[in-house]
Amino acid sequence: MSPDDIPWFEPEAIPCVPLQNVFLHVTKACNLNCTYCYFSARKPLPDEMTTEEFAVLWPQLAALWPGKVVLTGGEPLVRSDILELLQGLKDADPEHNVKRCLNTNGHLVTPALAQRLVGLTDEVRVSLDGLRERNDALRGQGNFDAAFRALKTFYDVGFEPKVLITITAGNVDDLEELICLLFEHKLTRMSFNNFRPIGRGDGRWDWRADPQRVRAAMTRAWQRCHPDLPIPSRHVEAEHEQCHCGVGTMLNILPNGDVFPCHVLTSPEFRCGNVREHNLLEICRDTGLLGDLAALDFRELAKQDEALADLSRPGVCLGNVYAKTKDSPMWNLSLPILGQV
Q1: Does pTM surpass 0.70?
Q2: CA atoms within 13 Å, Cβ hemisphere of 296
Q3: Which of 19, 99, 217, 224 is 20 to 30 Å from 328 at the Cα level?
């Protein structure tokens, strides 16, 4: 496939939704088998996109100008062409408008690879979810040591990585000590994600951590590591008032090219298209499903149907609410495009 095989659309010719993040799953293959993986990653899909097909996608992504493109998986480093993929995205965006990010579990990171990633990525995030015993119980024997070794390897080549921490009920008791351990090793860049009850953890709402315990652990860690500094403001009031999860401002592209609005809304009715069949600019037009999702008024929907009352909660995930209430007539009224699938 070449760029000529897909009709090209100039960005100004088709008004597109403004995107914050694009999560590009370059493979479903993974060398781990985490108990709570939202993608149920293990074996590659039989029809994953090739290097040449990704080459067609890069200029389309650059034209959309999202804030960040995250190459993830599975484990992206199992692809032998991962450096070529990153180079292709970089070449398509010579003005560097789009931040390039890579997620990894760290097992395949070597000093030589870490050095080559410098300049190809703006951010590398290494997954680490607890101290050794709990982390390895969740992610697999030896993962703690492999992840920590990868973090140190990146740091040693002058590329400070970010630690990607998925918070569950099973590791929240480690959170304070883990944060302090990372600070001790000068690893100060961290990203915290709440466990999603999808994929291999489908339906396991009991694996969600208590938010109050999470906040308390983070507060204790900050007070221990920075006793002379005030706890940074998180704009609590603004976050408290936020009742839209950002759906419609991100993309979830699967290894076979299927496009969905996010990691949670992956049922057939939310398939926005496939990059092998349609130009990404056409998929992201603001009059399509993504535009309709971005325009949803969560509070108004909650008022119209008490079954959707959870939409009025701060930090709510539309996908989780939809999974429980898909029979509500409000969805057909507010998202009539779903009925056209």
Answers
A1: yes
A2: 33
A3: 19
Residue with tokens 């998986």: 73
Alpha helices in the chain (DSSP H): 51-64, 82-92, 111-117, 132-139, 143-156, 175-184, 211-225, 236-241, 280-283, 289-294, 298-304, 318-325, 329-334
Tokens of 293: 């999702």
Which of 110, 23, 10 has its CA nearest to residue 64?
Answer: 10
Backbone φ, ψ for residue 172 (5° rounding): -60, -30
CB 269 within 8 A of CB 338: yes
As a three-state string, the secondary structure of 246-304 is CCCCEEEECCCCEEECCCCCCCHHHCCEECCCCCHHHHCECCCHHHHHHCCCHHHHHHH
| Distance, C-alpha 84 to centroid of its chain | 21
Burial class (CB in 10 A: 0-12, 13-18, 19+), 41: buried
Q: What is the mean pLDDT of each run of 10 residues along the chain (341 residues)?
A: 42 75 97 92 95 97 95 97 98 96 97 95 96 95 96 94 95 96 93 90 91 93 86 46 79 97 93 95 90 91 91 86 91 80 52
- In this structure, the number of other CB atoms found within 10 A of the CB of residue 111 comes to 11
What confidence score (pLDDT) does residue 119 get? 92
CA 133 to chain centre: 26
Burial class of 23 by CB neighbour count within 10 A (0 to 12, 13 to 18, 19+): buried
- From 277, 294, 281, select the one nearest 337 (Cα to Cα): 294
